[in-house]
Design a protein that fits this description.
Number of strands: 0
Length: 64
């Protein structure tokens, strides 16, 4: 099986990495944390299991 062309690989990587970071920052804001917390590897599991804040936080109003 032939390997992907490096340019196609990098386009795919940037096309998926940037939206993933945006979604991760949004999730961090939902639980009242700074978006940089998503860069801590194990903390992502904690974010996945944590419920959103029940009221408005400094990042904006509750949307649920």
């Amino acid at each position: 099986m032939p390997a992907l062309h490096p340019a196609i690989y990098w386009i795919f990587l940037l096309g998926t990495l940037l939206p993933s970071l945006a979604v991760g920052a949004r999730r961090c804001h939902d639980v009242g944390k700074n978006g940089w917390f998503q860069l801590i590897p194990i903390y992502n599991i904690v974010l996945f299991c944590t419920d959103s804040e029940t009221s408005e936080n400094k990042y904006g109003p509750k949307i649920k």
